[in-house]
């Protein structure tokens, strides 16, 4: 047993002097690996008689356990030492002043939201808000969306567990419920825009599960499509900074407007490059129409006395078109390099008098 004690003590002394995790692992292999010194002793048990095998087997196992425990303890100790050294080296003094080059940037979605707000504020619109978690009535029923409409299906809408009362709740699929809530909050006339987050089960270069929309609503007496046309003409020419931007309204269908239309703006796609305001091609930009009488009735407004128009567009899409951003998914990846390139200074406050950022 003297040889075993000497070998064990020698190995334990070596463990105590190791200075890295790699050295600890090398020593583990040398002692306990397939060709290790302790493993070699264990292999000699087969040639011993039963009594000797029993006695030496217990001693070999005890030595193996001691060395293994010492190796594990040393590895933990060295790991903690390395972590302490790293934490000390990487420590940040939060009381130091910010470096001049480390400037924050305004996200394009936030910037374009402010630009849109500035344009419509100049036309007399106010900003209205509503909850992201909506009930089925405000999100679908009040907007004249029938029970069998595809928008209500699970593959398009994020449904949440129902309330204790059994009421269906969901993440709003558009900001149109804000129009319903605002109309129900007081008597007409109304003139609002409703920017905010919306949610749908979709994800590719031009769609994400969470995105941003802005809806517009005007309710008053003697409102007609001419007012809608003039409003959207002013908006598109202001947001893209093109005074003579070509546009057209095409007949379309939405459950909550009648008649309904989609608005296209002139563009060019030559050479695979999209240019707004040039060429003979067209690009769909938003949906709009006269508010359906059933929507007015659902909000408690008499459609025989009041009329109105509504429109809706994707804020992210406007940002992509205006600032040449090719992939919508990059908006939500929190890449600082991307934000430095596409972001805006905090002083780039958009106003019609001072100019929108281009």
Keywords:
BirA Bifunctional Protein, domain 2; elongated; 11 helices; three-stranded antiparallel β-sheet
What's the SSE blueprint?
Elements: H1 2-17, H2 21-32, H3 37-43, H4 50-89, H5 108-122, E1 126-127, E2 133-135, H6 136-139, E3 159-160, E4 169-171, H7 176-185, E5 190-199, E6 210-220, H8 225-239, E7 247-254, E8 257-268, E9 275-276, E10 281-291, H9 293-298, E11 307-314, H10 315-323, H11 336-342
Parallel strand pairs: 1-5
Antiparallel strand pairs: 2-4, 3-4, 5-6, 6-11, 7-8, 8-9, 8-10, 10-11
Helix pairs in contact: 1-4, 2-4, 5-8, 5-10
Could you characterize what this model shows?
By secondary structure, the chain is an alpha+beta fold. The protein folds into two domains: 2-89; 108-342, 2-Layer Sandwich (BirA Bifunctional Protein, domain 2). It has eleven helices and eleven strands. The strands form two sheets. Strands 1, 5, 6, 7, 8, 9, 10 and 11 form an eight-stranded mixed β-sheet that branches. The protein has a three-stranded antiparallel β-sheet with strand order 2-4-3. Strand 3 (159-160) and strand 4 form a beta hairpin. The longest helix is centred in the first third of the chain and has 40 residues, at 50-89. 28% of the residues are buried. The model has no long low-confidence stretch (mean pLDDT 87).
């Amino acid at each position: 047993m003297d040889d075993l004690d000497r070998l064990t003590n020698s190995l334990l002394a070596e463990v105590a002097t190791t200075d890295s995790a790699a050295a600890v692992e090398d020593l583990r292999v040398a002692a306990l690996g397939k060709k290790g010194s302790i493993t070699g002793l264990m292999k000699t048990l087969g040639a011993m008689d039963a009594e000797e095998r029993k006695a030496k087997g217990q001693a070999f196992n005890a030595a193996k356990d001691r060395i293994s425990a010492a190796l594990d303890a040393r590895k933990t100790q060295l790991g903690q030492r390395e972590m302490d050294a790293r934490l000390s080296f990487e420590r940040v003094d939060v009381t130091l002043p910010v470096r001049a080059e480390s400037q924050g940037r305004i996200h394009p979605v936030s910037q374009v939201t402010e630009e849109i707000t500035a344009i419509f504020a100049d036309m007399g619109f106010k900003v209205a808000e509503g909850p992201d978690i909506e009930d089925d009535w405000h999100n679908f029923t009040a907007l004249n969306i029938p029970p069998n409409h595809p928008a209500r299906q699970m593959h398009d809408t994020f449904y949440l567990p129902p309330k204790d009362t059994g009421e269906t709740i969901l993440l709003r699929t558009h900001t149109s419920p804000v129009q319903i809530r605002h109309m129900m909050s007081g008597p007409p006339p109304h003139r609002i825009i409703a920017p905010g987050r919306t949610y749908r089960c979709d994800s590719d270069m031009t769609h994400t599960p969470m995105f941003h929309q802005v809806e517009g609503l005007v309710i008053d007496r003697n409102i007609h499509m001419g007012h809608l046309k003039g409003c959207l003409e002013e908006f598109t020419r202001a947001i893209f900074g093109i005074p003579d931007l070509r546009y057209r309204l095409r007949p379309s269908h939405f459950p909550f407007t009648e008649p309904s239309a989609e608005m296209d703006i002139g563009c060019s796609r030559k050479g695979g490059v999209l240019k707004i305001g040039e060429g003979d091609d067209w690009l769909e930009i938003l949906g709009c129409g006269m508010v359906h009488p059933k929507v007015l009735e659902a909000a408690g407004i008499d459609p025989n006395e009041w009329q109105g128009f509504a429109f809706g567009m994707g804020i992210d899409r406007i940002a992509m078109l205006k600032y040449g951003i090719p992939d919508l998914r990059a908006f939500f990846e929190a890449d600082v390099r991307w934000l430095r390139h596409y972001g805006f200074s905090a002083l780039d406050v958009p106003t019609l008098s001072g100019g929108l950022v281009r």
